[in-house]
Write a structure and sequence with these properties.
This protein is an all-beta fold. The chain has two domains: about 120 residues, Jelly Rolls; about 100 residues, Jelly Rolls. Helices cover about 0% and strands about 55% of the residues. The protein has a seven-stranded mixed beta sheet, with no helix packed on it. The protein has a seven-stranded antiparallel beta sheet with strand order 2-3-4-11-6-9-12, with no helix packed on it.
Length: about 240
Amino acid sequence: MKTIVHSSASRGLANHGWLKSRHTFSFAGYHNPERVHFGALRVLNDDQVAGGQGFGTHPHDNMEIVSIPLQGDLAHQDSTGRSEVIREGDVQIMSAGTGIRHSEFNYNKDEEVHFLQIWVFPKERNIAPRYEQKSYSAEDRVNKFQTVVSPEGGDAVWINQDAFFSLANLDAGVKLNYEVKKPGNGVYVFVLNGELNAAGESLDTRDAVAITEAESFEIKAKSYAEVLVIEVPMEF
């Protein structure tokens, strides 16, 4: 098993006033040649958007784009005519495929929205653009993994890649064993809140560890902790 720790402070920072964004991987004006992607995981942006502000209409193609609100509500519109509000507890995925244009704005005028935007390289290129959104209860991830993104669909939103996203909220002292779902995949463990140990590495809020060449590993919460686990192919 190999591990690489990415501390919260090592991420890129973009501060546009209305938008504060932390970039785990190279993005826009932030470029780190050692942090371009982790396997098929291309972008992990930690965004805070001021009330009523947002990203105007812009294009994407051949990318799987996942949005996870952590606080507040996000308004989405796209060129298929879809108009949605993505709220805390929701997970949204958009397969850009052959091409789609969309906008994202803070739905509320008087409070910030805080969300993760995650890009994954697709398994199949040039598919028809698609959109899916589901709501998840935090109670269903207390001291266990809750799979919210999967190529198998089901209770999870479907992704055009052999990738799996899981959330867990852990009480202090709780241990979980993560089993890699597809041989050869790597796993990126991102701590949303709290302190934990993952694959032998100590992590604090917004720290992460990239894990490769493992069939399984242990996560142990040092305090109450919330974690996002992203499993992706290393070759695609």
